[in-house]
Amino acid sequence: MKTIVVTGGAGFIGSHLCEALLTNGDRVICVDNFVSGSATNIEPFRANPHFAFIEHNVCEPLVIDDHIDQVYNLACPASPVHYQRDAVLTLETNVIGTHNMIRLALGAGARILQASTSEVYGDPLEHPQKETYWGNVNPIGVRACYDEGKRAAETLCFDYSRQRGADIRVVRIFNTYGPRMAEHDGRVVSNFIVAALRGEPITIYGDGSQTRSFQFVSDLVRGLILMMNNESFIGPVNLGNPGEFNMLELAEKVLRMTGSASDLITKPLPSDDPRRRKPDISVAKKELGWEPVVGLDEGLEKTIAYFATVV
Ligand SMILES: NC(=O)c1ccc[n+]([C@@H]2O[C@H](COP(=O)([O-])OP(=O)(O)OC[C@H]3O[C@@H](n4cnc5c(N)ncnc54)[C@H](O)[C@@H]3O)[C@@H](O)[C@H]2O)c1
């Protein structure tokens, strides 16, 4: 039985990861300050004797008097609504928080997996995005606290690996969706589904031709665990679903699947919003034998079923 720390474990992805690790028979120590996650997400695990929770802000050093094998560092608000609410705290979480979690792992002789993001590619000038692409990021824009913060976090991981021998793994996560996404966090899949279920207008930013690739959360969690347990490949590796859809296609799919009569309305594109995003996953296929298996229709069906119980 491994002892595994999951920071951000009360969030959307983190709670699915905690669940998968507990199902695998591991001990999980979930660390979260609920800045964007929720106690409800981890409620089902509280009775499990292999689950422990520490309420803690990763910007403060963390001491765990226990043997630790692995640390998944997911702590960071992930949606623009959440990460722009306190941009300085987001940057601190990415830089100081990651620094603290690397030091926790290093001190414990544990491996750390850093949850990075496709946002490190910014508004990409290469399509699809390979891990070798260095990105096109505005360092002073409203998204920089997240994009540049995650880039700095990757730098910290690789410098700690080269300089101090930290045992790191770095994954770049592309748009992920599924049950337990926060209802009001402004992410496109949850926005569209919640509006459709309530019969409220669905907002399309710009002309709706901007594309995204959407990965169902169970595919991502499988990839995170494979990467953490890979003995030789440290990354970075893209984890995402290469299926590419524009916002109008997504809205129409959601309307059809929910049977909703919601109107589509348009608003101007937010600043620095990337026009296209699609992962090249050939590295994940080669190094991890990983590729997504849940298609958009199947994933949307599960996500709609979840939101139907909460909205
Ligand atoms: N969901 C996606 O599409 C996506 C895409 C790329 C990367 N990621 C990364 O995956 C991770 C999880 O994302 P998510 O979608 O589950 O987001 P989320 O906001 O649901 O979860 C983040 C969790 O981290 C916690 N947290 C934030 N700051 C913290 C701090 N200072 N100390 C302790 N806990 C803190 C939050 O309370 C929350 O529970 C994030 O690091 C995010 O950047 C997510």
Which terms would index this structure?
311 residues; alpha/beta; Rossmann fold; 7-stranded parallel β-sheet; two-stranded parallel sheet; 10 helices; 39% helix; 18% strand; binds nicotinamide-adenine-dinucleotide
Could you state the order of secondary-structure elements as H and E? EHEHEEHHEHEEHEEEHEEHEHH
Strand-pairing-aware structural class: alpha/beta
Q: What kind of assembly state do the chains in view correspond to?
A: single chain
Give helix % range: 25-40%
The total strand number stands at 13
CATH class: Alpha Beta
Named at the architecture level, the CATH assignment is 3-Layer(aba) Sandwich
Instruction: State the shape.
Output: globular
- Poorly predicted runs are none
Number of DSSP helices?
A: 10
Query: Number of folding domains?
Result: 1
**Strand residue percentage:** 15-25%
Overall description:
The protein has 311 residues and is α/β, with parallel strands linked by helices. It has one domain: NAD(P)-binding Rossmann-like Domain (Rossmann fold, 3-Layer(aba) Sandwich), CATH 3.40.50. Helices cover 39% and strands 18% of the residues. The chain has helices spanning 12-23, 39-42, 80-83, 87-108, 144-164, 188-198, 217-228, 247-258, 282-288, 296-310; strands at residues 3-7, 27-32, 51-55, 70-73, 111-117, 167-173, 176-177, 202-205, 211-213, 215-216, 237-239, 244-246, 264-267. The protein has a 7-stranded parallel sheet, with helices on both faces. Helix 1 (12-23) links the parallel strand 1 and strand 2 (27-32). The radius of gyration is 19 Å and the shape is globular. The mean pLDDT is 96. It binds nicotinamide-adenine-dinucleotide. Nicotinamide-adenine-dinucleotide binds at residues 7-8, 10-14, 32-37, 57-59, 74-78, 82, 93, 97, 115, 117, 173, 175-176.
